[in-house]
Every structure is written in structure tokens, then in C-alpha cells.
Design a protein that fits this description.
mainly beta; Immunoglobulin-like; Pectate Lyase C-like; 25-stranded parallel beta sheet; 16-stranded parallel beta sheet; 4 helices
Length: 974
């Protein structure tokens, strides 16, 4: 109800509160203060409601967990079914159950430190259970469950959560006044759990830092308002330190209040809660998979500080009254559902180097400094669904980064710019210098809504800012300030693509183009900006200048008014007028996420192409009937094992399309669909008959999602092969233009390719020939024995991973237990820059993974832009890679592990800025590496006789090695 309060700020967000707590962790003493504020505000709210006509938007309540329990197994140290910390036995089967106060969605996670081992979701229920069998090992796990309901387009969603800690190692309980260090030192080498009971530990410099010397160690209290570590003086170091003598991974800190003596003392790595620096290691990192959860931190210098960290998780924490909230060099960290408030000086949240970090669903408020700052060389940062507000100095987001996404954030009442892209370096490859700033609400800031700035630099590579579907409202300076000129010499380096935004009521210009390489404006509403809508440029194609008719901007509601339906935070209401910003967006832009009727065109502003887009009259509804674009099989000699595939021009109503399908002679089977819901695959339950003509019919009953039916029936015939007259060896053709025996449509093309391989394999082997074209895959192509898998040439046949893929631990081409197979004459594109896998190189996305196989040949194949390896042989023998190119692999170009008689010859491996080795021979013997060129970022040739296992009788000759950035060209790494 606080949406209607106008006292504190006339631009109050929906759900704005002067103090915000996550529901499961608010302390009783702290809530007394908050409750009094709430009561006062509630009275004001009631008064305001009585004066309103129409519908009032009410924020949905948090789906709170009211009951929880766990049953099963043979636990110890468990006092009752509600106990959250206890010991279990290997192979125990345990069922965890929670009940919420309302129907909601549940997400379960099995965690090893910060590493997610397993997930499970259950939706639209009040009670949810998850059963898990404990592995047969000595370790410690957290079982997390999170409840949620509606997740808004902008800002964080509301949640509640519960966490169990279970261990097959030791569990030691420590009472207030007892020695925490002694308990930690008593754990076995496998780690375990130290449970801190309710109460306060008063700690001085003589008592700290408490050392964590073992991996898989959990230090857990009873709640961040119950278990308190209190500093009695300014600490010279940290409350707790990960060991500086050895690598510690999978550490967990949760349910503790770190209460410092004063934020005014300390500096780097002093007067901080946890020092995560540890011992440096290139392979593991100085701090890996550490989980910080449900912590309350105040009155220290730095909230979180660590260096050379990987895969860490900070969640459900409250950090307040500190100097710096987060300052860390980290890769692939996730920071979610935290509150950072009341403090700061300089940077508030600072990624001081690293890459691929995620900052999502947080609240940053009442702070001083740059609220969120990816600093230095820190590419590929994701900043989504945060609230950043009441920043007394600095910017809302200050970006020194490329390849990053800023989406779904609410940024207001910042003393500087809402977002400033602060540039002083760039990649040499312009395709990597792209930032996407989309679907944000940026208003009432003292600077501009969005600004770019290029500091003194000699790097003249093109940078690109894609600024799309934002609302930029009533900022004190410009809506968007486009300064794409290098400060010291005025060289233009920026390209601006500004589209589908609403830019209005800013105190200077709507768009101020100071300079750059180019500016491309289209389909924006630029209206009523004080000094003019444009400066240095002019309206672009499709730009309009009209009142956008926001629902209630004074109270933070920037949804567009609509007579046909507007989302008000809890449901759909109807206005007496419709915004001109409903439907005038780029006609080529995706609008599929907008609710119907949506006019068949994207709305402009922050809610465009989202589930909260205001509806339109429907006059522009999709009325185009679907058509069938490809189908297979066709012609004669179709294998009796074939599937039948029909690809439509758009997503279909699956039930109607399946009902419209018939085949004669009739045969039973099952249907499946691709991820885009436009490719239908019918798999017969048994083999088809030999030498039989089949007719497939798709009737007009098939309809698309808008209800448009197929205009006319579609049919085709194919004939199955003779049992005795199949070509020997057979060859089948796969195509993208409809001319093949198997035809692909650019989505999940591995389905048709794998079917072709399977059908060839059923005949004993043969050739699968991929015609010229680009084949888009989302999963592995699985090889078989006695196969020639070929394209029409490196530059003609391309297999490419689909955009947006986050799939891990796979290879585009995989073979296991196969023999006598050749792969040749094609390119494999890993599409790394468009596939934001969670763990980067460690996500293990390879071009080839060939396991337990022999007599394989890979020749004349180009592999480009992979996260991990080019060709990996594992437990394989008598195979070769020749005349191939591996470009920009993230790890190793060529690799033999636990293999023998592998030959790598006449290959070219190149990588810049990434990679470990050109070729790696790991515990493999009788291999030949000759006449290759390795121009790589790491080692040219890396030889690993690991664990005393020799790499014997290998020949390395006539190879050319350069690059390797100070590392040895050839390295023996025992």
C-alpha cells in the first residue's frame, strides 16, 4: 500500500519502503523500529485511499514459509523435525517439506558451497517436498528452498526461503564464550559443520582472525538476529580468514550477525568480516565456490572483500553502515537478493576486475558513491532487476565494461547520472565492445539518465551502445548524453543504436549527441524535454513526440495507460484512454512476450516485449495463417527407422497440430517439439514397413497461437527402402534449403542430423553429407561407427551453437565407444560471445569430445570461438587430427588424455587473450605432434605426466610455436 505515499518522495516506487527487509531474516529488535514506521505510513495510506476513484494497485504479499520439516534417514544431532542443522549417513534418503501461507512457486537447490548440484521446481501449490539421497561420501551440503510468486519486469521479486545444512562429516556445536577456532581445528580434513548457538561472542584483535583451514567447512549460526560476532575494537584484519596456507573451497558462512566496532577505522583487508584471499592458484583461485548467505553486516570498513575469487555466491544478506559494501576481483560471482544501505564512500558495489559476474534482484539505497561499478577490465557483467535509489553522490551504475547487459533495473534519485558508461579501454575486436542497456526505468536523477564518456586512450576500436526500451524521465540534465569522442584527441569511437525508448520531461535535452561514429535513432518517443528533444542530431525513423500517458508517474507507476488492459502491480485494469506508446515500436522487433491483444507490434518504453506491456485494441492482431516450411523424409529409400518431421513458419498450438497429423498406412507413435514450438517430430513406436509408400497429411485443424488455421491441407509422400536394395555404402544428404533427404530449418538442427546418422548406422554405416549452409544446434551431434560425416568445405558447411545457449558440459560433436569414423570438410562455430554459459571455460563446452573410441580421423575442420577445447580424445587410440584450424578456443586447441597412438599433424591453433595450450598431452603415450603451428596465449605444447603416469614414446617435431605471453613454448608439467 505504500505506493500511494507522497510524503518522502513524489517519485516513489511501487513497494518502496524507507526500510526493506527480506522476509525470513529480519531481526526482532530491528523490526521494532521498522514496525513503527509502517504503522505511521499505513495510516497515511488509508487516508489517501478514501479520496481515490478507480482501482488501487496493491503489491502482492510475500509468500512466507510457515512450516517446515525433514524426515527419513538415520540422522544424529537432530532435536526435532524442524531442526535445520544435523548429521546424516551416506545413502540416507531424506524428504524435506515446506508449507507457505499462500499458493506459490517453490525452487529447490542442492548446494555444495556455492556450487549448485541439483535443482527442482514445483509451482502453484502451498506445500512442496523434495526427496534426496545423500551421496556415499564425506561432505556437507545445503538444501535450499525459495518461495516466490509474481516476478515483476522491473526491480526484484519478493521471496522467502529456508535452508537445511546436512553433513556426513563432523558437526560441532559452540556456545557463546566457547572457542570457535578450537572447534574449527577439530574438524577432519574433509571439513564439516561448526554450529554457533544463539548469543554473542565478543572478539578483539587477540581473538581474530579466526582461521578456516579446511575445504567444505560450514560456519552457521541461528539467524542474523540471534548469533552475533561483535568486535570490541577496530580489527587489524578480519573476523574470519580463509587459510593463507592452502586453497579452501566450498566454504559456507550463514545466519550470523557481524557487528563491527566502527566503520571509521580500517582499510583494505582490515576491519572486515571475512578475508577470502587465501592462497593463490591459477586452477582453483584464491577463493572458490564460497557461499555467504543470510548475513547481517554493519559498522565495519568493507562488507565483502576478496581477490582472485571464482564462483562465489552472496545472497539474502543485509549490509549497512559500512564504508565500502563490496570490493572484489571475481569471476562468475552471483550476488542476489541482498540489501545494501546507509553507508558508502566512493564505490558501493565494486567489481574490481574479473568477468562474467551477475548482480541481480538487489536493493541499493541511501548510500554515497557509485552504487554499482564494474571497474577496470571486467567484461560480460549482468546487472538485472535491481532497485538503486537515494544515492547521495556518484552514479547509479558506473560501467567500465563491455559485453554486458543492464536490464530491468529501477534507478532513481541518484545525485549523478542514472547510468554512466565510463570508457578507458576496449577489445581489438569490435564485436566484443557492445553493451546492451534495455528495459530500465531511470528517473529523477541529478545528472543525465544515461551517459557515455571515453577517457584518454589510444585504443580506437569501435564501441557500441544499444539503448533500447527504456523509460528516461525527469532527470536534471539530458535524457541520454552521447559523448563518443576520446577526451584527449576527439577521435570518434562510439556507435549508438537508440530505439523504442520513452525520453521525456528531462531538464536539458532529450538526446544530446556530442559526437561519435554514428547515431541511429528509431521508434522513440522524445517529448517535452526542457531545452529541446534533440541536440546535435534529429528525429530518427519512426520517432514520435507525444505525451506517453503514464499511469501514475508521481507514485512510480510508469505503465502505459490503456483502455484494453494495463497491469497495475496485482492485476489488469482498464483506463479511459490509451497511450500513443502502445504499439508504435520497431515493426521488426520481437513482441512475443507481450500479452494479447498486443496489436502485433512492440510497445515502446521499459515494458515493451514483456508480460507487463499494456494491451491494445487487437486491430493489429496476428491474422497471418501458418505455413509448412520443411518436412522430412522425402523421396525413396527412407529408412524404416525414420522419424517424421514437420516445421511450421511460427509457433503452433501443439494439441491442434498433433490432431491435424495423420499417416497412411496408419502407425502409432509419439509427438515431440523443439524449443520454439514450431517443429513437430513424430516418432513411430515401431519400424515402418519396407518398400512401402506412406502419405502424411496435415489438415487445416492445425492452428498457430493466435488461432489462425492452416489455409489448406498439406500432404506429401515418401517410400521406405527395400530390405535388400539399400545403397552400399549408403549416402544421405542433409540440407537447409529443402533439397536433402533430411531438411533442417535453423532451429535444433541436431535432431535431423542425428536422425540421419542413426538411420545410416542402422544399415551398418555410410556417409552423412551436410550440404552448404549453416546448421544451428542446441545439443550434441552424436557420431556412430563406420561413418563418414562430411560437409562441402570449411567455408561452405557451418555447424553453429544457437544464440543464448547456457548449456554446460557438452560438445557439438560427440563420440563414445565408436570406431572407423571420419569427420571432415566443415566449420564448427562455438558462438562463444553469444552464449553466456554460467562458468565460462569451466562450463566445458567443446567442439569435439571423443571418448573410448579408436580409428577416428578429424580432417580439414575449422573450430572457432569455443569456451573450452577444440578436439579432445579421452581414453581413445589410433586416431588423428590433421589439416584443421582451431581459432579462439578458451582452453586447449588439441588434447589427448589417457590415450595412445594419437597423431596431430599440419594443424593451426590460434588464440589471443584466452586459452591454456595449443596441444596438451596428458598421461598419453605413443603420440605424434608434428608440423603444427601454435600461436596461442598459453603454452604451445603442454605435457602432463600426471601422478607418476608417464607420457612415453611421444614424438614432437617440426612444430612452429609463438605467442605464449611469457610462458614456455614447450612445458613439462608434472
Amino acid at each position: 500500500m505504500l505506493v500511494l505515499i507522497k510524503i518522502a518522495n513524489k517519485h516513489k516506487d511501487k513497494g518502496d519502503k524507507d526500510t526493506v527487509e527480506t522476509s525470513s531474516s529480519a531481526g526482532s529488535s530491528r523490526m521494532i523500529k521498522n514496525t513503527s514506521v509502517f504503522i505511521a505510513c499505513f495510516i497515511v495510506t488509508l487516508i489517501l485511499i478514501t479520496g481515490l476513484s478507480g482501482v488501487v494497485s496493491v503489491s502482492a504479499a510475500v509468500p512466507s514459509i510457515t512450516n517446515w520439516s525433514s524426515t527419513g534417514g538415520s540422522p544424529t544431532n537432530k532435536d526435532n523435525p524442524q531442526d535445520l542443522i544435523y548429521r546424516v549417513q551416506p545413502e540416507d534418503t531424506i524428504t524435506f517439506t515446506v508449507t507457505a501461507n499462500e499458493t506459490c512457486n517453490f525452487t529447490w537447490k542442492v548446494m555444495l558451497g556455492a556450487e549448485v548440484l541439483q535443482t527442482h521446481e514445483e509451482n502453484n501449490t502451498k506445500t512442496s517436498s523434495f526427496t534426496w539421497t545423500v551421496p556415499n561420501e564425506t561432505s556437507t551440503w545445503d538444501m535450499e528452498v525459495e518461495t516466490s510468486n509474481y516476478k515483476p519486469v522491473l526491480g526484484p521479486y519478493k521471496q522467502d526461503h529456508k535452508v537445511w545444512t546436512i553433513t556426513t562429516s563432523e558437526l560441532i556445536t559452540v556456545n557463546p564464550g566457547e572457542d570457535i577456532q578450537a572447534a574449527l581445528d577439530s574438524l577432519p580434513e574433509e571439513g564439516g559443520v561448526v554450529e554457533l548457538k544463539e548469543g554473542t561472542w565478543n572478539l578483539s584483535n587477540a581473538d581474530t582472525p579466526i582461521q578456516i583451514n579446511r575445504s567444505n567447512t560450514t560456519l552457521r549460526g541461528q539467524g542474523k538476529n540471534k548469533t552475533i560476532l561483535h568486535a570490541t575494537e577496530i580489527l587489524d584484519g578480519a573476523f574470519i580468514q580463509l587459510s593463507s596456507l592452502k586453497n579452501v573451497i566450498h566454504a559456507v558462512f550463514e545466519d550470523v550477525y557481524f557487528h563491527g566496532f566502527s566503520r571509521e577505522g580500517g582499510d583494505y583487508y582490515t576491519n572486515i568480516p571475512i578475508d577470502g584471499r587465501g592462497k593463490g592458484s591459477e586452477d582453483i583461485g584464491w577463493d572458490a565456490y564460497t557461499k555467504y548467505s543470510d548475513l547481517l553486516i554493519d559498522e565495519v570498513h568493507n562488507g565483502f572483500q576478496y581477490n582472485r575469487a571464482r564462483e562465489n555466491l552472496i545472497q539474502y544478506c543485509t549490509v549497512e553502515h559500512v564504508k565500502v559494501f563490496i570490493d572484489c576481483w571475481t569471476e562468475r560471482a552471483i550476488i542476489r537478493h541482498n540489501i545494501f544501505r546507509h553507508g558508502g564512500t566512493g564505490a558501493v558495489i565494486k567489481f574490481n576486475g574479473g568477468s562474467d559476474n551477475i548482480f541481480t534482484n538487489n536493493i541499493v539505497e541511501h548510500v554515497a558513491g557509485w552504487a554499482v561499478e564494474p571497474y577496470g577490465i571486467c567484461p560480460r557483467v549482468t546487472i538485472t532487476n535491481n532497485i538503486i535509489r537515494y544515492v547521495r553522490s556518484g552514479y547509479g551504475i558506473r560501467m567500465w565494461t563491455y559485453g554486458s547487459l543492464v536490464k530491468g533495473n529501477i534507478i532513481h534519485d541518484v545525485n549523478g547520472d542514472g547510468i554512466r558508461v565510463f570508457d578507458c579501454w576496449a577489445y581489438s575486436d569490435p564485436s566484443k565492445n557492445i553493451n546492451n542497456i534495455t528495459n530500465n526505468l531511470i528517473y529523477n536523477n541529478k545528472g543525465s539518465g544515461i551517459t557515455t564518456q571515453v577517457r584518454d586512450t589510444t585504443i580506437y576500436t569501435t564501441r557500441t551502445a544499444n539503448i533500447m526500451n527504456n523509460i528516461i524521465y525527469e532527470n536534471e540534465k539530458n535524457g541520454i548524453t552521447c559523448n563518443g569522442l576520446i577526451e584527449n584527441n576527439g577521435v570518434p569511437v562510439y556507435v549508438y543504436n537508440i530505439k523504442n525508448n520513452i525520453i521525456t520531461k528531462n531538464k536539458e535535452y532529450g538526446i544530446n549527441y556530442i559526437g561519435g561514429k554514428s547515431i541511429n535513432l528509431s521508434y522513440n518517443d522524445v517529448y517535452n524535454n526542457s531545452l529541446g528533444n534533440y541536440n546535435g542530431t534529429s528525429a530518427g525513423m519512426g520517432d514520435i513526440s507525444v505525451d506517453p500517458l503514464f499511469a501514475d508517474p508521481d507514485n512510480g507507476d510508469f505503465h502505459l495507460k490503456s483502455q484494453y488492459g494495463r497491469w497495475n502491480g496485482s492485476g489488469w485494469v482498464n483506463d479511459n484512454e490509451t497511450s500513443p506508446c502502445v504499439d508504435p515500436g520497431d515493426p521488426e522487433a520481437n513482441y512475443s512476450s507481450e500479452p494479447k491483444p498486443n496489436g502485433g507490434r512492440i510497445n515502446i518504453g521499459a515494458y515493451g516485449n514483456t508480460g507487463e506491456a499494456s494491451m491494445s485494441s487487437g486491430l493489429g492482431l496476428d491474422t497471418t495463417p501458418p505455413i509448412i516450411t520443411t518436412h522430412s523424409p522425402t523421396g525413396a529409400h527412407a529408412p524404416v527407422t525414420t522419424t517424421i518431421t514437420v516445421t511450421f513458419s511460427e509457433a503452433m498450438n501443439k494439441t491442434s497440430a498433433e490432431s491435424a497429423f495423420s499417416i497412411s498406412p496408419s502407425i502409432s507413435g509419439t509427438f515431440s517439439w523443439d524449443s520454439n514450438s514450431n517443429k513437430m517430430i513424430f516418432t513411430p513406436s515401431s519400424n515402418l514397413n519396407y518398400e512401402t509408400a506412406y502419405t502424411v497429411i496435415i489438415s487445416t485443424e492445425a492452428e498457430d497461437l493466435a488461432g489462425n488455421n492452416l489455409e489448406s491441407p498439406f500432404s506429401w509422400q515418401f517410400t521406405t527402402a527395400s530390405e535388400t536394395t539399400l545403397p552400399s555404402p549408403p549416402i544421405v544428404y542433409v540440407a537447409t534449403d529443402g533439397t536433402g533427404d533430411y531438411n533442417c530449418d535453423g532451429t535444433d538442427d541436431q535432431i535431423e542430423i542425428n536422425q540421419a546418422i542413426s538411420d545410416i548406422n542402422s544399415t551398418g554405416g555410410g556417409t552423412v553429407h551436410l550440404k552448404a549452409g549453416t546448421y544451428i544446434i542446441s545439443d550434441s551431434i552424436s557420431l556412430s561407427s563406420n561413418l563418414i560425416f562430411e560437409g562441402e568445405g570449411m567455408e561452405k558447411t557451418i555447424i553453429k551453437i544457437e544464440d543464448g545457449s547456457t548449456k554446460e558440459n557438452w560438445a557439438t560433436i560427440a563420440g563414445e565407444g565408436i570406431s572407423s569414423t571420419t569427420i571432415k570438410n566443415l566449420t564448427i562455430d562455438g558462438n562463444k560471445d553469444n552464449c553466456p554459459v554460467p562458468k565460462g571455460i569451466d562450463s566445458d563446452v567443446d567442439a569435439f569430445h571423443l571418448y573410448n573410441s579408436l580409428n577416428l580421423t578429424v580432417e580439414n575442420v575449422k573450430m572457432i570461438d569455443f569456451w573450452t577445447d577444440g578436439v579432445e580424445f579421452s581414453h581413445s587410440s589410433d586416431s588423428a587430427v590433421k589439416d584443421c584450424e582451431v581459432i579462439q578456443g578458451g582452453h586447449e586447441g588439441l588434447r589427448a588424455i589417457y590415450s595412445e597412438n594419437i597423431t596431430f599433424t599440419n594443424n593451426y591453433v590460434y588464440s589471443a587473450g584466452t586459452g591454456n595450450a595449443g596441444v596438451r598431452i596428458y598421461e598419453s603415450s605413443n603420440c605424434i605432434i608434428e608440423n603444427n603451428c601454435f600461436n596461442v596465449y598459453g603454452f604451445g605444447i603442454l605435457i602432463n605426466p600426471q601422478g607418476g603416469v608417464p607420457c612415453g614414446n611421444n614424438i614432437y617435431r617440426d612444430n612452429y610455436i609463438e605467442g605464449h605471453y611469457g610462458l614456455p613454448g614447450i612445458a613439462l608439467w608434472p
